[in-house]
């Protein structure tokens, strides 16, 4: 016969094992905090923006067709920005001790839909290095794209600027601790149910009625030991 655990039973198990669940959650919080502050190296992010837009002369009208052509080129530009042709020159210019493949993993190129603005973001453990890489990638790309595609429609819209108190983007301490709390609750509650399931001791007369389907005829109360009986007898004899 399948066992059906009532909602009251669930809350009772959680109540009985609340210290176990609380302890596991606290351990998860401590472990997550230690990992975030002492073992995971923080990463900083710097961003620069470039504008893809053909320069027009005073009497030249920049029409919709030209804007659409620029938008179609952006997808190609996103690939070129992270290509070894650009990143190798960036590494040489900044004298970085890395490869173009490794540097590619640090760079994220993104542009919103129907926008001629391309955002170049760089993550690094060194905040100043992230700024330098982001700005250098934009400058190198602007100069090299004229040679590669014989076109001059890229301008640096905004460069990455340092701030006084930069905030690391990774790790996200609060998010990681929240995840640790959720995982700790799941493990703690799961362990509480497992311990309750394997515990076959008779806890109450209701347990006998529910499990064995037997009526309760009587209850045997606990009898105090001889020492406690003597103490009670002496206390009563003194009162007379």
| Overall spatial form | elongated
* Cα separation of the termini: 60 Å
Strand content: 5-15%
Largest sheet: 4 strands, antiparallel
| Strand adjacency order, main sheet | 2-3-1-4
Order of helices and strands: HHEHHHEEHEHHH
Structural class: alpha+beta
Helix content class: 55-70%
Mean pLDDT: 81
Low-confidence stretches: 56-61
- Give the helix tally: 9
Description:
This protein has 240 residues and is of the alpha+beta class. It contains 9 helices and 4 strands, in the order ααβαααββαβααα. It has a 4-stranded antiparallel beta sheet. The chain starts with 6 loop residues before the first helix and ends with a helix. It is elongated and about 100 Å long. The longest helix is centred in the last third of the chain and has 26 residues, at 173-198. The chain crosses the membrane at residues 19-40, 174-195.
